[in-house]
Protein backbone atom coordinates (compact mmCIF):
# COMPACT_ATOMS: atom_id res chain seq x y z
CA UNK A 1 0.00 0.00 0.00
CA UNK A 2 1.31 3.41 -0.94
CA UNK A 3 1.60 6.23 1.56
CA UNK A 4 -1.13 8.03 -0.34
CA UNK A 5 -3.48 5.12 0.27
CA UNK A 6 -2.68 5.26 3.98
CA UNK A 7 -3.50 8.97 3.95
CA UNK A 8 -6.81 8.34 2.15
CA UNK A 9 -7.67 5.67 4.70
CA UNK A 10 -6.78 7.88 7.67
CA UNK A 11 -8.61 10.94 6.37
CA UNK A 12 -11.75 9.05 5.43
CA UNK A 13 -11.83 7.52 8.87
CA UNK A 14 -11.73 11.12 10.09
CA UNK A 15 -14.64 12.04 7.76
CA UNK A 16 -16.76 9.26 9.26
CA UNK A 17 -15.94 10.68 12.69
CA UNK A 18 -16.81 14.24 11.68
CA UNK A 19 -20.15 13.09 10.25
CA UNK A 20 -20.86 11.56 13.65
CA UNK A 21 -20.36 14.97 15.23
CA UNK A 22 -23.19 16.49 13.16
CA UNK A 23 -26.27 16.85 15.34
CA UNK A 24 -28.57 13.84 14.87
CA UNK A 25 -32.09 14.32 13.58
CA UNK A 26 -34.53 12.95 16.14
CA UNK A 27 -37.39 10.84 14.79
CA UNK A 28 -40.44 10.42 17.01
CA UNK A 29 -40.93 6.92 18.35
CA UNK A 30 -37.38 5.72 17.65
CA UNK A 31 -34.96 5.32 20.56
CA UNK A 32 -31.92 6.35 18.52
CA UNK A 33 -32.09 9.43 16.27
CA UNK A 34 -31.04 9.30 12.62
CA UNK A 35 -27.40 10.25 12.20
CA UNK A 36 -25.12 11.04 9.30
CA UNK A 37 -22.52 8.48 10.32
CA UNK A 38 -23.48 5.68 7.93
CA UNK A 39 -23.33 8.28 5.19
CA UNK A 40 -19.59 8.21 5.88
CA UNK A 41 -19.56 4.43 5.49
CA UNK A 42 -21.17 4.78 2.07
CA UNK A 43 -18.85 7.60 1.00
CA UNK A 44 -15.74 5.69 2.03
CA UNK A 45 -16.77 2.72 -0.10
CA UNK A 46 -17.95 4.62 -3.13
CA UNK A 47 -15.08 7.13 -3.23
CA UNK A 48 -12.11 5.01 -2.14
CA UNK A 49 -13.13 1.57 -3.41
CA UNK A 50 -13.29 -1.78 -1.67
CA UNK A 51 -9.91 -2.19 0.01
CA UNK A 52 -9.24 1.36 1.14
CA UNK A 53 -12.89 1.95 2.03
CA UNK A 54 -13.06 -1.15 4.22
CA UNK A 55 -9.76 -0.25 5.86
CA UNK A 56 -10.94 3.30 6.53
CA UNK A 57 -13.84 1.90 8.54
CA UNK A 58 -11.56 -0.52 10.39
CA UNK A 59 -9.37 2.43 11.34
CA UNK A 60 -12.45 4.38 12.39
CA UNK A 61 -13.48 1.53 14.69
CA UNK A 62 -9.94 1.40 16.11
CA UNK A 63 -10.16 5.13 16.84
CA UNK A 64 -13.48 4.56 18.61
CA UNK A 65 -11.96 1.68 20.55
CA UNK A 66 -9.02 3.72 21.84
CA UNK A 67 -11.50 6.15 23.37
CA UNK A 68 -12.32 8.92 20.92
CA UNK A 69 -15.97 9.91 21.44
CA UNK A 70 -16.67 10.05 17.72
CA UNK A 71 -19.70 7.81 17.37
CA UNK A 72 -22.90 9.79 16.92
CA UNK A 73 -24.06 11.21 20.22
CA UNK A 74 -20.51 11.49 21.52
CA UNK A 75 -20.21 7.80 22.27
CA UNK A 76 -16.92 5.95 22.10
CA UNK A 77 -14.61 3.68 23.99
CA UNK A 78 -14.75 -0.06 24.25
CA UNK A 79 -18.28 -0.09 25.67
CA UNK A 80 -19.92 0.37 22.29
CA UNK A 81 -18.32 -2.86 21.04
CA UNK A 82 -20.14 -4.94 23.63
CA UNK A 83 -23.54 -3.23 23.52
CA UNK A 84 -26.63 -4.87 22.01
CA UNK A 85 -26.29 -2.92 18.76
CA UNK A 86 -22.56 -3.52 18.31
CA UNK A 87 -23.31 -5.71 15.28
CA UNK A 88 -24.09 -2.60 13.27
CA UNK A 89 -20.64 -1.24 14.07
CA UNK A 90 -18.98 -4.48 13.03
CA UNK A 91 -20.94 -4.40 9.80
CA UNK A 92 -19.50 -1.05 8.69
CA UNK A 93 -16.13 -2.21 7.35
CA UNK A 94 -17.89 -5.02 5.49
CA UNK A 95 -20.47 -2.58 4.13
CA UNK A 96 -17.80 -0.14 2.92
CA UNK A 97 -15.93 -3.02 1.29
CA UNK A 98 -19.03 -4.28 -0.52
CA UNK A 99 -19.98 -0.78 -1.68
CA UNK A 100 -16.43 -0.25 -2.91
CA UNK A 101 -16.41 -3.57 -4.70
CA UNK A 102 -19.71 -2.87 -6.47
CA UNK A 103 -18.47 0.61 -7.33
CA UNK A 104 -15.29 -0.78 -8.89
CA UNK A 105 -17.30 -3.34 -10.86
CA UNK A 106 -19.33 -0.57 -12.45
CA UNK A 107 -16.66 2.15 -12.38
CA UNK A 108 -16.35 2.64 -16.13
CA UNK A 109 -20.05 3.31 -16.55
CA UNK A 110 -20.59 4.60 -13.01
CA UNK A 111 -23.59 6.93 -12.72
CA UNK A 112 -26.26 7.77 -10.19
CA UNK A 113 -28.13 4.52 -10.82
CA UNK A 114 -25.08 2.29 -10.26
CA UNK A 115 -24.09 4.35 -7.24
CA UNK A 116 -27.56 3.80 -5.80
CA UNK A 117 -27.34 0.04 -6.38
CA UNK A 118 -23.96 -0.10 -4.64
CA UNK A 119 -25.03 2.03 -1.69
CA UNK A 120 -28.36 0.31 -1.17
CA UNK A 121 -26.90 -3.18 -1.33
CA UNK A 122 -23.76 -2.43 0.68
CA UNK A 123 -24.99 0.39 2.88
CA UNK A 124 -28.44 -0.91 3.76
CA UNK A 125 -28.79 -4.64 3.01
CA UNK A 126 -25.34 -5.67 4.29
CA UNK A 127 -25.58 -3.54 7.44
CA UNK A 128 -28.96 -4.99 8.42
CA UNK A 129 -27.95 -8.52 7.43
CA UNK A 130 -25.20 -8.32 10.06
CA UNK A 131 -26.72 -6.01 12.66
CA UNK A 132 -30.14 -7.67 13.00
CA UNK A 133 -28.95 -11.25 13.69
CA UNK A 134 -26.23 -9.89 16.00
CA UNK A 135 -28.75 -8.12 18.23
CA UNK A 136 -30.95 -11.17 18.16
CA UNK A 137 -28.21 -13.61 19.19
CA UNK A 138 -26.42 -11.32 21.56
CA UNK A 139 -29.41 -9.99 23.47
CA UNK A 140 -31.32 -13.25 23.30
CA UNK A 141 -34.38 -11.87 21.51
CA UNK A 142 -36.18 -13.51 18.58
CA UNK A 143 -34.84 -12.64 15.12
CA UNK A 144 -38.21 -11.28 14.05
CA UNK A 145 -38.40 -8.87 17.01
CA UNK A 146 -34.92 -7.62 16.25
CA UNK A 147 -35.87 -7.19 12.59
CA UNK A 148 -39.11 -5.28 13.15
CA UNK A 149 -37.34 -3.16 15.76
CA UNK A 150 -34.81 -2.00 13.18
CA UNK A 151 -37.31 -1.39 10.35
CA UNK A 152 -37.90 2.15 11.52
CA UNK A 153 -34.34 3.05 10.52
CA UNK A 154 -34.68 1.90 6.91
CA UNK A 155 -36.27 5.09 5.49
CA UNK A 156 -33.46 7.21 6.92
CA UNK A 157 -30.86 4.84 5.51
CA UNK A 158 -32.41 4.96 2.05
CA UNK A 159 -32.26 8.77 2.16
CA UNK A 160 -28.59 8.52 3.12
CA UNK A 161 -27.90 6.09 0.26
CA UNK A 162 -29.35 8.62 -2.20
CA UNK A 163 -27.25 11.42 -0.68
CA UNK A 164 -24.08 9.34 -0.76
CA UNK A 165 -24.72 8.40 -4.39
CA UNK A 166 -25.13 12.02 -5.46
CA UNK A 167 -21.88 12.94 -3.70
CA UNK A 168 -20.02 9.91 -5.07
CA UNK A 169 -20.95 10.75 -8.66
CA UNK A 170 -19.94 14.40 -8.19
CA UNK A 171 -16.61 13.46 -6.61
CA UNK A 172 -15.88 10.94 -9.36
CA UNK A 173 -16.28 13.72 -11.90
CA UNK A 174 -14.07 16.17 -10.00
CA UNK A 175 -11.45 13.98 -8.33
CA UNK A 176 -11.59 10.28 -9.21
CA UNK A 177 -9.59 8.16 -6.79
CA UNK A 178 -10.44 4.62 -7.84
CA UNK A 179 -8.04 3.26 -10.45
CA UNK A 180 -8.85 0.09 -12.25
CA UNK A 181 -5.98 -2.33 -12.82
CA UNK A 182 -4.54 -2.04 -16.30
CA UNK A 183 -6.27 1.10 -17.44
CA UNK A 184 -6.37 4.57 -16.02
CA UNK A 185 -9.55 5.82 -14.46
CA UNK A 186 -10.47 8.74 -16.64
CA UNK A 187 -13.63 10.54 -15.81
CA UNK A 188 -15.06 13.56 -17.53
CA UNK B 1 -9.12 16.73 24.08
CA UNK B 2 -10.61 14.08 21.89
CA UNK B 3 -10.60 11.25 24.39
CA UNK B 4 -12.70 9.66 27.10
CA UNK B 5 -9.59 9.19 29.27
CA UNK B 6 -9.80 10.60 32.78
CA UNK B 7 -6.33 11.12 34.27
CA UNK B 8 -5.61 9.54 37.62
CA UNK B 9 -3.04 7.70 39.67
CA UNK B 10 -5.09 4.80 41.01
CA UNK B 11 -3.88 1.20 40.73
CA UNK B 12 -6.42 0.70 37.93
CA UNK B 13 -4.91 3.64 36.03
CA UNK B 14 -1.42 2.26 36.50
CA UNK B 15 -2.26 -1.31 35.44
CA UNK B 16 -0.96 -2.10 31.96
CA UNK B 17 -3.31 -1.50 29.06
CA UNK B 18 -2.80 -5.03 27.78
CA UNK B 19 -3.77 -6.51 31.14
CA UNK B 20 -6.93 -4.41 31.34
CA UNK B 21 -7.96 -5.34 27.81
CA UNK B 22 -7.29 -9.00 28.48
CA UNK B 23 -9.41 -8.80 31.64
CA UNK B 24 -12.20 -7.14 29.67
CA UNK B 25 -12.08 -9.84 27.01
CA UNK B 26 -12.13 -12.56 29.67
CA UNK B 27 -15.10 -10.91 31.37
CA UNK B 28 -16.92 -10.74 28.04
CA UNK B 29 -16.46 -14.44 27.41
CA UNK B 30 -17.11 -15.42 31.02
CA UNK B 31 -20.38 -13.53 31.29
CA UNK B 32 -21.82 -15.38 28.32
CA UNK B 33 -20.88 -18.74 29.79
CA UNK B 34 -22.90 -18.26 32.97
CA UNK B 35 -26.64 -17.73 33.12
CA UNK B 36 -27.17 -17.58 36.90
CA UNK B 37 -28.48 -14.20 37.89
CA UNK B 38 -26.53 -14.00 41.15
CA UNK B 39 -23.20 -14.58 39.37
CA UNK B 40 -23.91 -11.88 36.78
CA UNK B 41 -25.13 -9.47 39.46
CA UNK B 42 -21.97 -10.23 41.45
CA UNK B 43 -19.84 -9.39 38.42
CA UNK B 44 -21.67 -6.08 38.09
CA UNK B 45 -20.93 -5.24 41.73
CA UNK B 46 -17.25 -6.12 41.24
CA UNK B 47 -17.00 -3.94 38.12
CA UNK B 48 -18.68 -1.03 39.90
CA UNK B 49 -16.32 -1.46 42.85
CA UNK B 50 -13.29 -1.46 40.55
CA UNK B 51 -14.53 1.65 38.76
CA UNK B 52 -15.79 3.76 41.64
CA UNK B 53 -13.61 2.60 44.54
CA UNK B 54 -10.56 1.17 42.74
CA UNK B 55 -10.17 3.77 40.00
CA UNK B 56 -12.01 6.59 41.85
CA UNK B 57 -13.96 7.47 38.70
CA UNK B 58 -16.74 10.02 39.14
CA UNK B 59 -20.22 8.49 38.87
CA UNK B 60 -21.42 10.89 36.15
CA UNK B 61 -18.53 9.87 33.89
CA UNK B 62 -19.57 6.22 34.07
CA UNK B 63 -23.23 7.08 33.72
CA UNK B 64 -22.46 9.07 30.54
CA UNK B 65 -21.26 5.82 28.98
CA UNK B 66 -24.28 3.81 30.11
CA UNK B 67 -26.90 6.41 29.20
CA UNK B 68 -26.90 5.74 25.43
CA UNK B 69 -27.66 2.02 25.94
CA UNK B 70 -30.16 2.61 28.72
CA UNK B 71 -33.21 2.64 26.44
CA UNK B 72 -32.00 -0.49 24.70
CA UNK B 73 -31.63 -2.29 28.00
CA UNK B 74 -35.11 -1.27 29.10
CA UNK B 75 -36.59 -2.38 25.76
CA UNK B 76 -34.65 -5.64 25.99
CA UNK B 77 -36.11 -6.35 29.43
CA UNK B 78 -39.64 -5.70 28.19
CA UNK B 79 -39.14 -8.07 25.25
CA UNK B 80 -37.88 -10.75 27.61
CA UNK B 81 -40.84 -10.26 29.95
CA UNK B 82 -43.13 -10.95 27.03
CA UNK B 83 -41.15 -13.74 25.38
CA UNK B 84 -39.09 -15.66 27.97
CA UNK B 85 -39.49 -14.42 31.53
CA UNK B 86 -38.22 -11.92 34.06
CA UNK B 87 -35.22 -13.99 35.19
CA UNK B 88 -33.73 -14.50 31.70
CA UNK B 89 -34.43 -10.84 31.05
CA UNK B 90 -32.62 -9.74 34.18
CA UNK B 91 -29.60 -11.87 33.26
CA UNK B 92 -29.46 -10.47 29.71
CA UNK B 93 -29.76 -6.86 30.90
CA UNK B 94 -27.29 -7.22 33.79
CA UNK B 95 -24.81 -8.95 31.51
CA UNK B 96 -24.80 -6.12 28.98
CA UNK B 97 -24.78 -3.45 31.68
CA UNK B 98 -21.75 -5.09 33.31
CA UNK B 99 -19.85 -5.30 30.03
CA UNK B 100 -20.60 -1.71 29.04
CA UNK B 101 -19.51 -0.47 32.47
CA UNK B 102 -16.34 -2.58 32.46
CA UNK B 103 -15.43 -1.27 29.02
CA UNK B 104 -16.11 2.29 30.20
CA UNK B 105 -13.77 1.74 33.16
CA UNK B 106 -10.97 0.52 30.86
CA UNK B 107 -11.50 3.45 28.48
CA UNK B 108 -11.53 6.03 31.27
CA UNK B 109 -8.38 4.71 32.96
CA UNK B 110 -6.17 4.03 29.93
CA UNK B 111 -4.30 6.59 27.85
CA UNK B 112 -5.01 6.73 24.11
CA UNK B 113 -1.32 6.21 23.37
CA UNK B 114 -1.26 3.05 25.50
CA UNK B 115 -4.30 1.69 23.69
CA UNK B 116 -2.80 2.53 20.29
CA UNK B 117 0.31 0.62 21.39
CA UNK B 118 -1.87 -2.38 22.17
CA UNK B 119 -3.54 -2.10 18.76
CA UNK B 120 -0.08 -2.09 17.17
CA UNK B 121 0.88 -5.10 19.24
CA UNK B 122 -2.30 -6.93 18.26
CA UNK B 123 -1.57 -6.11 14.63
CA UNK B 124 1.76 -7.94 14.77
CA UNK B 125 0.44 -11.23 13.37
CA UNK B 126 -0.76 -9.23 10.34
CA UNK B 127 2.88 -8.93 9.36
CA UNK B 128 2.40 -12.31 7.73
CA UNK B 129 0.08 -10.71 5.19
CA UNK B 130 2.36 -7.72 4.67
CA UNK B 131 0.91 -5.23 7.14
CA UNK B 132 3.46 -3.30 9.14
CA UNK B 133 2.21 -2.70 12.71
CA UNK B 134 3.97 0.66 13.00
CA UNK B 135 1.98 1.92 10.02
CA UNK B 136 -1.25 0.84 11.70
CA UNK B 137 -0.31 3.08 14.62
CA UNK B 138 0.63 5.87 12.21
CA UNK B 139 -2.75 5.74 10.46
CA UNK B 140 -4.65 5.81 13.76
CA UNK B 141 -2.58 8.76 14.94
CA UNK B 142 -3.24 10.59 11.65
CA UNK B 143 -6.98 10.02 11.98
CA UNK B 144 -7.03 11.32 15.56
CA UNK B 145 -5.10 14.37 14.44
CA UNK B 146 -7.32 15.12 11.47
CA UNK B 147 -10.74 14.79 13.11
CA UNK B 148 -10.70 18.28 14.71
CA UNK B 149 -9.12 19.69 11.55
CA UNK B 150 -11.84 18.29 9.29
CA UNK B 151 -14.59 19.37 11.68
CA UNK B 152 -13.24 22.88 11.40
CA UNK B 153 -12.97 22.63 7.62
CA UNK B 154 -16.57 21.43 7.41
CA UNK B 155 -17.71 24.35 9.55
CA UNK B 156 -15.82 26.77 7.32
CA UNK B 157 -17.36 25.37 4.13
CA UNK B 158 -20.80 25.62 5.72
CA UNK B 159 -20.14 29.24 6.70
CA UNK B 160 -18.93 30.09 3.21
CA UNK B 161 -22.07 28.61 1.71
CA UNK B 162 -24.27 30.36 4.24
CA UNK B 163 -22.60 33.64 3.32
CA UNK B 164 -23.63 32.98 -0.28
CA UNK B 165 -27.21 32.33 0.85
CA UNK B 166 -27.23 28.53 0.60
CA UNK B 167 -28.08 27.82 4.17
CA UNK B 168 -30.38 24.86 4.12
CA UNK B 169 -28.63 22.13 2.13
CA UNK B 170 -26.37 19.86 4.16
CA UNK B 171 -25.51 17.73 1.16
CA UNK B 172 -23.75 20.61 -0.54
CA UNK B 173 -21.18 20.66 2.25
CA UNK B 174 -20.12 17.12 1.46
CA UNK B 175 -18.80 17.40 -2.08
CA UNK B 176 -16.30 20.21 -1.33
CA UNK B 177 -15.41 18.55 1.97
CA UNK B 178 -14.64 15.19 0.35
CA UNK B 179 -12.60 16.82 -2.41
CA UNK B 180 -10.72 18.99 0.10
CA UNK B 181 -9.95 15.83 2.08
CA UNK B 182 -8.69 13.96 -0.98
CA UNK B 183 -6.38 16.85 -1.81
CA UNK B 184 -5.24 17.03 1.82
CA UNK B 185 -4.46 13.31 1.74
CA UNK B 186 -2.38 13.83 -1.39
CA UNK B 187 -0.34 16.64 0.19
CA UNK B 188 -0.01 14.69 3.42
CA UNK B 189 1.32 11.60 1.65
CA UNK B 190 3.90 13.66 -0.20
CA UNK B 191 5.05 15.15 3.10
CA UNK B 192 5.23 11.69 4.65
CA UNK B 193 7.15 10.24 1.71
CA UNK B 194 9.60 13.14 1.89
CA UNK B 195 10.24 12.09 5.48
CA UNK B 196 10.88 8.51 4.50
CA UNK B 197 7.53 6.87 5.12
CA UNK B 198 7.27 5.31 1.68
CA UNK B 199 6.62 1.69 0.97
CA UNK B 200 10.16 0.59 0.10
CA UNK B 201 12.37 -1.80 2.03
CA UNK B 202 11.22 -3.03 5.38
CA UNK B 203 13.73 -2.20 8.07
CA UNK B 204 14.79 -4.96 10.46
CA UNK B 205 12.41 -5.35 13.36
CA UNK B 206 13.61 -3.96 16.66
CA UNK B 207 14.42 -6.71 19.18
CA UNK B 208 11.98 -5.81 21.96
CA UNK B 209 8.96 -4.14 20.48
CA UNK B 210 6.58 -5.23 23.22
CA UNK B 211 4.68 -2.10 24.20
CA UNK B 212 2.25 -3.84 26.53
CA UNK B 213 4.40 -3.42 29.58
CA UNK B 214 5.94 -5.97 31.90
CA UNK B 215 4.61 -9.40 31.13
TrEMBL record, chain A:
Transmembrane feature ranges: 30-48, 55-72, 78-102, 114-138, 158-175
Highest taxon of the lineage: Bacteria
Locations listed in the record: Cell membrane
Molecular function, one GO term: biotin transmembrane transporter activity
Keywords of the record: Cell membrane, Membrane, Transmembrane, Transmembrane helix, Transport
Signal peptide: none
InterPro entries reported in the protein's UniProt record: BioY
Cellular component, GO annotation: plasma membrane
Matching Pfam families: BioY
Membrane association type: Multi-pass membrane protein
Family in the record: Belongs to the BioY family.
Protein name: Biotin transporter
Organism: Geodermatophilus sabuli
Organism phylogeny: Bacteria, Bacillati, Actinomycetota, Actinomycetes, Geodermatophilales
From TrEMBL, chain B:
Keywords: Membrane, Transmembrane, Transmembrane helix
Annotated transmembrane regions: 12-34, 39-57, 69-92, 99-122, 134-151, 171-189
Disordered as annotated region, ranges: 195-215
A cellular component annotation (GO) from this entry: plasma membrane
UniProt key word Membrane: yes
Domain of life per record: Bacteria
Cellular compartments annotated: Membrane
Membrane topology: Multi-pass membrane protein
Primary subcellular site in the record, as a coarse category: membrane
Keyword Cytoplasm: no
Protein name as annotated: Energy-coupling factor transporter transmembrane protein EcfT
Lineage, top ranks: Bacteria, Bacillati, Actinomycetota, Actinomycetes, Geodermatophilales
Amino acid sequence: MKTRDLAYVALFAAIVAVLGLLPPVPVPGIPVPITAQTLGVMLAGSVLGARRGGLALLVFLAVVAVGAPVLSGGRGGLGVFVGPTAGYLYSWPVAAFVIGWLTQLTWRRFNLAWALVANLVGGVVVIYAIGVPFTSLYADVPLWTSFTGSLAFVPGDVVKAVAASVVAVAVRRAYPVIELPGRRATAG
Amino acid sequence: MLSLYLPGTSPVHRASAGLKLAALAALGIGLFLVSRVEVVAGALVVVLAVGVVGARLPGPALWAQVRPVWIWLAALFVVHLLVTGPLTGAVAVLRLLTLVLAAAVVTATTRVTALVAVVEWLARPLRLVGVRPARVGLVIAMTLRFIPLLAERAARIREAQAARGAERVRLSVLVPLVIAVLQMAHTLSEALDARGADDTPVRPVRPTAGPVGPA
